[in-house]
Amino acid sequence: MIEAKTISIQHDDAREAGALARGELFDVLGKAPDFVLLFVAGHLDAAVVMEGFGRDLPARTRVVGCSTFAEIGEEGGLTRSVTAMGLCFGGGVEAEGFLVENLAGREREAGRSLGEQAKAFGPKLLVLLADGLVNTDRLVLGMQDVLGSTFPIVGGMAIDDGRFERAYEILDRRVISGGAVALGLRGPVELVAGAKSGWVPIGATHTCTRVENGNVVLEIDGRPALDLYLEYLGPRAGEMPSVSADFPIGIVGGLDGVPRVEGESIALLRSVKGVDEARRALVFGGDIPEGAKIRMTRATRDDVIRGANEVGAKLVASMPKPSLALFFDCGGRKMVLGPRYREELGETFARLEGVPKVGFYCAGEFSPVDGVTMHHDETFTMALLRG
Fold this sequence. Notes:
Helix content: 10-25%
Low-confidence stretches: none
């Protein structure tokens, strides 16, 4: 059995926001939770929030959380909040928290370490919150080296409020940067998860012919990658880098063993996180292997919202009465949707009336596709749990 309640507090004093969030969460639950999923707005110092939240917190109450671009609470999308879901377990459902530090440059090794910690506990699934400023593709691969490629992992990448300077990860009373935390559940618990972007490919298929460090694409079809990308942007090229959120790259081939999202012609989306002007290169948030087949993409706001609605409808049909719903939505989608960003959750939330909900807008998302968890960009992902 899983009992869950979600609260959100908007307060610009970080310590007070944490204290108020703890107090309200305990009030709505009527008791101390076993675990808390905690999402902290990027403009707040997460360590100071935890000073307030952790004050008078019983030792048995565990915390897993991270900093966010924005938060998702019971009323939908919101900003500048501390949002928390309290979880109480019974009926054989048990939970444990895991942490690895210093991912940069050793992501796959760190993933194996996180996988070994989890394997010793024997979970049915993991909720992963990893730093969005490192290569989490390799972190997930390292975890899969230990847990297997089909082990279910859902979650998102921690980030700040758009500055891309420092993200925070939380386990219990510890607040770190540059690491990853995870919540593992075992016992009689079920999961359904899904992902969909809404972006569609345009133009010709191209080949990444020169890639450095996995995520720096120097050449496409033997040409400087940035030059080709700017050609596609046309008159909007002058809006770089902010316009790149509107035009992610779609990987359509050249990824061995990577399944496709049902109904999508794109295997994975990769967003442009930066450019190297001197080398005319594109820097991505996730890996794009040399030889990958790619296409440029585009989407209207209606397309983006429709993608979220479709995956929400599919999952609710698969699990009509879940114990809780988790949402990991890309911050890039929020930027593209602008004032319409709350519409993205509307239909799905209506289908989940009475179901506790929580999540955040992140730098990238983790969700299984055909049973294999991958890192997605600019994709709406969600998970329904029943226990």
